[in-house]
Amino acid sequence: MKEDLTITTTYLKEKGFDKPEIGIILGTGLGKLVEQINIENEISYNHIPHFPTATVEFHQGKFIYGELAGKKVVVMQGRFHFYEGYSLQDVTFPVRIMKELGIKKLLVSNAAGAINKNFKKGDLMLIDDHINLQGGSPLAFKGISQFGERFVDMSAPYDANMNAKFKEIAQKNTITLHEGVYASVVGPQLETSAEYRYLGIIGADAVGMSTVPEIIVANHLQLPVAAISVLTDECDPDNLKPVNVKEIIAIANQAEPQLVKLFSELIRDL
């Protein structure tokens, strides 16, 4: 992996990805933040050496560099998932690349299902803890000690300072921002009623198929990270309806302006 990191980082630096301060990972249906960026360069994933390629049809698959709210940012417009057949090391490779490029903070977004019955679709949830149900770890590979501490502490995986700022910004702009626990499952199938019931019992407020591997690697890299879920459906096991993916994307799009506001104002404050 070390050689791949060097080759990829060198390629991106030569393309002008120069000392970004903040990395951003945009989840399903959450691409409008890019419209706020003064883009200096963008490259499709399939042109970047050793980079995975996004295979989900509603993920753009672009690495973007530019300025947002007065800060240099590097943005993943579309992420990779374990369910696409990639390893967890592949899924998190871009986080390591962003760190190599120089980012000091990482912001992550995703679309998720609301387990907590007090949360409604279209709401936002600030992640303050998570449950890893993906059956593996992006740190579980030979040679991990070359990259840092093998046994990474996860007692506080989400940065308290950025989370506090997010809450202040939400309050100031009258944005509903819940706080809760995100459970990350493999997918790509959606959950059964019994699985949603189980997730609620073990303490999950929302469920999705991403984010946690990236958070683990950010902590491994000692990179402060914060994450927000856009809640796109309500997962009530007693009143479960078939999932409409088009509706999920539409709800993510409706909620996105609030997410853009939170991310932009936070970046301005950092």
Task: Provide an overview of this structure.
The chain has 270 residues and is an alpha/beta fold. The chain has one domain (2-269): Rossmann fold (3-Layer(aba) Sandwich), CATH 3.40.50. It has helices at 2-14, 88-101, 160-172, 193-201, 212-220, 245-269, and strands at residues 22-26, 38-44, 62-68, 71-77, 105-114, 124-132, 177-184, 206-208, 225-234. The chain has a five-stranded mixed barrel. The two termini are 31 Å apart. The relative contact order is 0.21.
Could you list some keywords that capture this structure?
Rossmann fold; EC 2.4.2.1; 6 helices; five-stranded mixed barrel; alpha/beta; transferase; Purine nucleoside phosphorylase; globular; 270 residues
CATH homology superfamily: Nucleoside phosphorylase domain
Quickly give the CATH architecture. 3-Layer(aba) Sandwich
Q: What Rg is obtained from the alpha carbons, in whole angstroms?
A: 17 Å
| Percent in strands | 15-25%
Short description:
The protein has 270 residues and is α/β, with parallel strands linked by helices. The chain has helices at residues 2-14, 88-101, 160-172, 193-201, 212-220, 245-269, and strands at residues 22-26, 38-44, 62-68, 71-77, 105-114, 124-132, 177-184, 206-208, 225-234.
Topology, please?
Layout: H1 2-14, E1 22-26, E2 38-44, E3 62-68, E4 71-77, H2 88-101, E5 105-114, E6 124-132, H3 160-172, E7 177-184, H4 193-201, E8 206-208, H5 212-220, E9 225-234, H6 245-269
Parallel strand pairs: 1-4, 1-5, 5-9, 6-7, 7-8
Antiparallel strand pairs: 2-3, 3-4, 5-8, 6-9
GO cellular component, one term: cytoplasm
Function: The purine nucleoside phosphorylases catalyze the phosphorolytic breakdown of the N-glycosidic bond in the beta-(deoxy)ribonucleoside molecules, with the formation of the corresponding free purine bases and pentose-1-phosphate.
Family: Belongs to the PNP/MTAP phosphorylase family.
